[in-house]
Amino acid sequence: MKKLVLLGGGYGNMRVLLRLLPSNLPDDVEITLIDRIPFHSLKTEFYALAAGTISDQEVRVSFPEHDRLKLVSGEVSTIDRENKQVVLENGEAISYDDLVIGLGCEDKYHGVPGADEHTYSIQTIRKSRETYKTLCGLPSGSVVGIVGAGLSGIELASELRESRSDLTIKLFDRSPRILRDFPERLSNFVKKWFDTHNVEVVSSSNITKVEPHMLYNHEETIPVDAVVWTAGIQPVKPVRDLGGDTDSIGRVVLAPHHHLPTDEHVYVVGDCAALPYAPSAQLAEFQAEQIVQVLTAKWKGKELPETLPEIKLKGFLGSLGKKQGFAYLADRTVTGRIARLLKSGVLWMYKWHNG
Question: Which residues form the FAD/NAD(P)-binding domain (predicted)?
Fold first, then answer.
């Protein structure tokens, strides 16, 4: 029996399961899924969990059930490619014939002193719960700093404003204008929403130090009661320890068929893969579709094409609270209520397709 091992139950490996189960898995293949939690969690919605506007249950989706799918709860410690084993923190070793690594990412602090110790995170469901407990337990009038004005920072700031109208929220953006890589109309819409809802956007910021109740922006000191870090990501340590070539943010450089250039049995999907796009759930799912095609061809003994079709992303969707949103789709900007309804619809469809 061939052993396909999936590390991480994120968007990429959920798509692998969706395509292979229940009826497309060859009779001589069994799957082991290893994850630290016993369900798939919707990382794109962690900002709302941290802000307290949705419940924990709303960001959970059950893994599929199948007689040749084994779920293992545990934390991955080491990927031993020489012996084709995955070693967990409890010492258990799980063998594989083919391995798909979808362990996701963690915060990257860029060497900023105190950032690791004195900031909160929304990278995992556990950390998002901890962030929720802190943010929603703050006294009225407290100051919350959100470092990083990418999609996660924008959505967290807007959702927290709807959850806690009594807080002072400061969103620190390294760029001179918010979402600077996208049309100015999009930037202006988001900035106007923040101005209207009394969220301060601190442009051209450079956080150089974090203390328990103080942020250092350039030479300025800013008193804060809590800080959430959304200013960069990097692959988790077991992936960083794989060796081989990486891109500028530490993602693993892959061969055209999404496996390691030196190991055709080890695939990397999602946030850890060095692809010419920003990490996203959409990208992980497109990549997973191609990995399934490659695995299926290999299992059937078919010859693989030299290259795979170029991945073409549809754009992105973002929310500004529960009633407004923004989107960039097919080089077109959509803002307001329609964009928010689109995002809600995509989320509903995702849950529906995943049972």
Answer: 3-282
* Spatial distance between the Cα atoms of 12 and 60, rounded to a whole number of angstroms: 16
- Structural contact between residues 217 and 205, judged by C-beta atoms closer than 8 angstroms: yes
Specify the pairing of strand 226-229 against strand 93-95: unpaired
Does 52 reside within a domain? no
Numbers of helices and strands, H then E, in the chain: 9, 23
Is 187 part of a structural domain of the chain? yes
Specify if 257 maps to a domain: yes
Sign of CA dihedral 185, 190, 195, 201: negative
Cα-based distances in Å from 250 to 105, 206, 259, 277, 288: 10, 22, 16, 14, 20
Last residue of a domain, one of 299, 315, 331: 299
Please check whether residues 227 and 237 belong to one and the same domain. Answer: no
Instruction: Domain count for the chain, please give it.
Output: 2
Summarize pLDDT for 138-175 with one digit per residue, the tens: 999 999 999 999 999 999 999 999 999 999 999 999 99
Residue 274 maps to a domain: yes
**Of 83, 73, 28, the residue nearest 266 (C-alpha):** 83
- Residues 6 or more apart from 212 whose CB is under 8 A from it? 118
Q: Which of 179, 189, 158 is nearest to 334 (CA)?
A: 189
CB 17 within 8 A of CB 7: no
Which tens digits make up the pLDDT trace of 11-68? Answer: 999 999 999 999 999 999 999 999 999 999 999 999 999 999 999 999 999 999 999 9
- In 3-state terms the chain splits into helix, strand, coil percentages (rounded to 5) of 30, 30, 40
And the tokens for 296?
Answer: 């299926």
State the amino acid at position 264 in one-letter form: E
What distance in Å separates the CA atoms of residue 67 and residue 62, rounded to the nearest whole number?
A: 16
Which range of residues forms the domain containing residue 211? 109-231
Q: Which of 231, 253, 286 is the last residue of a domain?
A: 231
Tokens describing residue 287: 């990549």
Structure tokens at 292: 């399934």
88: domain CATH number is: 3.50.50.60
